[in-house]
Amino acid sequence: METLAQDVRFAVRSLAKSRGFALVAIITLALGIGVNSAVFSVVNAILYRPLPVHAPTELVELYGKQEAETSYGTHSYLNYLSYREANTTLSDLIAYSNFMANLVVEGSSQLAVGELVSDNYFTGLGVRPALGRFFTPEEAAPIGGATYVVLSDRFWRSRFNAAPNVVGKTLRMNGTIYTVVGVADPSFGGMIPGATSQMWIPVTMAEQVEPFGNQRVPALTPGTTRFDRRGVHWMSMKGRMKPGITPQQVQAEFEGILGRLAAEYPVMLGKERIATFATTDVRINPAADRYLEPAGMLLIAAVGLVLLVACANLANLMLARAAGRGHEIALRVALGATRLRIARQLVTESLVLALVGGALAFPLAAGLTAVVSRIKPPLPIDIGLSISPDWRVMLYTLLIAIGTGIAFGLVPAIRASRPDLVPALKEGANDGTRGRFRLRDALVVAQMAVSLVLIVVGALFVRSLSAAADVPLGYDAGRIGFLTVPLEFIGYDDKRGGVLMEQARQRLADVPGVQAVSLTSRLPLSLNNNNFGIRVVGREDDRPYTIDGAYVDEHYLNAMSLTLLAGRAIVSADREESPRVMVITRAMAQRFWPGAPENAVGRQVRTRADGPMYQIVGVVADHTVDTPGEPAKSYVLLPLERDLNYGNYIIRTATPAAGMITTFEREVRELEPDAVFMDRGTFRELADHKLFPVRAGAWLIGACGLLALLVAAVGLYGVIAYSVNRRVRELGIRAALGAEPALIVRMVIREGMLLVGIGAALGAVMAFGAAKVLSGVLFVAPFDPVSFALATGVLASAALLANAVPAWRASRVDPMLALRSS
Predict the structure, then answer these.
(1) In Å, how far are 40, 212, 470, 488 from 677, measured between CA atoms?
(2) Mean pLDDT across the stretch 507-528?
(3) What is each CA distance from 176 to 155, 253, 490, 760, in whole angstroms?
């Protein structure tokens, strides 16, 4: 320990004498480690941070699913009650479901998002109130009458200005008055990692608000509400295991309970299955987690490349520093210092640099995550993403700092601990060997290769954004606006809602500048979808095909400016129950009835094996449904019912629609002052939202690429400058023999650009492989010549600039001084 302390003191004194070197090394490390820690903070918040509840390792997830399905879903209310009463392995079984509602506080309306929760939700999780209390089992029991609400700390502060007297205040959701009974602990935000619920209300209020998320109705089930329909699955469940119980034992017991229920209700539960996981093994959902973790690892790998470049750069700096200290090291060896002692001293210096860099990296990471947290994903609500660094990020930063210190310090330390004593003890001797120079060259090549990979990928993302904006959608996205109006949020039933919806459609159609208005169940380019299990009548395989579609009114084709290729469009009379008709896209017609579009007109399909028959009456041109740039997609349009309390208005305008959205909202609110809009905007904005992952990738990878290039350029400068310093005598002789300064400049630049060329060639191969992996989210070809040429040009320009200064200095060598110093 005393020897280690000596090494640390000596390292500090030695670095203090080389302030320039230490400053460059520390800043480079702080940038590389800080960016890595910031990205890990995001990944940590979503993938690794446990729920802020009591003893999360005691919790298990219980999923319902159908036989042979790979998805993990929900449970019905009646099944939850049966499980809760019959199980013996759990001390608590809680249920919850997300909801959306129209919230009115002091006359101001907004969309609210929260959780419907069972009466034992907070006690089962071990969460305590920060203010007031939680609702009691008696308060939460009455179906439709449990009008109590618990606020999240974030929502209490933002909507109620952290008023200490909030308990006892009332708010109105979907026309029902709720009394605030408490505020949850600030650390608790609900069941979705990285997102915050605004409030919690008893699960018995599900008919008054709209549950959303994973809802299943796998079989016909009797009943009138979701509380007496055992086959309607809409609730998630978590259980707290009793001491000594394992998830496998919980699984076995619940399979037995489900088996008994299936024997009693074979139609509704005959194919129902249950799956159990430890809560610490699940982040969002087992099915979704398969994609989340690789995505998180990809982010960490991307910024890890920046750190790799920084490590290579610092290894070069350490090699140069060790070479400059050759006389000192040789003298210490001559006086009896062992190779291990020399190497340990040099590694200690690199660790001191890394730890100081890591100490600066942590506040840098906190600042970067604060910036990231202000980025709003394309969602109609504020999800309250909390990604502030915690002890895991601190530990990660520390480990990265130590690992980096060893990584960039070990090889230079080993090489420096083997000096050639006789030449090294001569003050004027050449202080490096050719082998050492070749290692430095290899490090620069690696830096250039990695930098090119990042710059190429960033360029591909940027080019994809530009290309996506030019992709034909099949309609003019800038001249189509939309409003999503959930009248169910303000107490409208289907009959009243349908009347108001049509009145509002007529009112919107009369707005000056509006060319057509339609009502539909689904907006193209939106996140929601309608899937139909289509069976083609007369087809030999008679198997269901999953086809996307939407319910639309008779104005849909006009509002979307879609071309009718064959047959007719949906008309007003089709919106009655019979006859049942359908309009399909050209892609679907070609899929099942190749040839002319007319071949599909008159054909018949069913939406399920025993479902009603639909006749195809028309074929429309293909158009974008999900994502810009998607291939032509099979899509069906079905007549929209007249009685509805939820719908989307599609509004085509003569001029850009963005400036008219406020007018559209005002027109609807003049009919219904309490109307709330789940979403609004233009189709151009929807298309941009779909491109959010590409835009985020462009920003992240582009920033990493530029940072890596900056670090690599500094490394290249260091190598060439070091080479020039070693060759002062040679350059002086050349100058004395008549070499022109321009010739010396070209010679030095050629040496540096050779390294760049090798690194660029290697990087181009690596970049092409990376582009192939990412091709699914790109809108340009993986080998896009413009992206590769642009990236190579940027790399070459930066490298040329890094070479220019040492080359200029080489051309200014005074022959007499160079020869005198040799």
Answers:
(1) 36, 16, 30, 11
(2) 91
(3) 19, 40, 9, 65
Asked whether residue 430 carries a pLDDT value surpassing 60, the answer given is no
Q: Which two structure tokens, joined as six digits, stand for 539?
A: 């087809």
Question: Which of 699, 687, 717, 696 lies closest to 625, judged by CA?
Answer: 687
pLDDT in tens, 329-384: 666 666 666 667 777 777 788 888 888 888 888 888 888 887 777 766 666 555 55
| Digit-coded pLDDT (tens) for 109-166 | 778 889 999 999 999 999 999 999 999 999 999 998 899 999 999 899 988 999 999 9
- Residue 111, token pair as written in the block: 């969309």
Q: How far apart are CA 636 and CA 642, in angstroms?
A: 19
Q: Would you tell me how many other CB atoms lie within 10 Å of the CB of residue 510? A: 10
Q: Please give the structure tokens belonging to residue 328.
A: 């000192």
Greater pLDDT, 66 or 314: 66
Residue type, 759: G
Report the relative pairing of strands 176-184 and 148-151 from DSSP bridges.
parallel
Angle between helices 339-373 and 19-43 (to 10 degrees): 50
Half-sphere exposure in the Cβ direction for 284 (13 Å, CA): 16
Q: What is the DSSP letter of 490?
A: G
Q: Give Rg (Cα) of the chain.
A: 34
User: CA angle at residue 802 from 800 to 807, to 5 degrees?
Assistant: 80
What would the pLDDT profile of 469-480 be if each residue is shown by its tens digit? 777 888 998 999
Q: How far apart are CA 552 and CA 572, in angstroms?
A: 10
DSSP notation for 133-148: -PPPHHHH-STTT--E
Name residue 412's beta-bridge partners. Answer: none
- The answer to whether 615 and 580 have CB atoms below 8 angstroms apart is yes
The two tokens of residue 731 are 């350059």
Q: Answer whether 750's CB lies under 8 Å from 726's CB.
A: no
| CA–CA dist 667, 365 (Å, integer) | 47
Q: Is 675 helix (H, G, I), strand (E, B) or coil?
A: coil
What is the torsional sign of CA 699, 704, 705, 710? positive
Burial class (CB in 10 A: 0-12, 13-18, 19+), 13: exposed
In percent, the amount of the chain with pLDDT more than 70 equals: 84
Concatenating the DSSP letter of every residue in 378-420 gives S-SS---------HHHHHHHHHHHHHHHHHHHHHHHHHHTS--
**Residue keyed to tokens 């790799």:** 308
pLDDT value at position 339?
65
Long-range residue pairs from 336-344, CB within 8 A, at least 24 positions apart, any chain: 339/417, 339/418, 340/417, 342/413, 342/416, 342/417, 343/410, 343/413, 343/414, 343/416, 343/417, 344/7, 344/413
Residue 795 and residue 790: Cα distance in Å, rounded?
Answer: 9
For tokens 């941009």, name the residue: 688
Per-residue confidence band for 435, with pLDDT thresholds at 50, 70 and 90: very low
Alpha-carbon dihedral sign for residues 785, 789, 795, 799:
positive
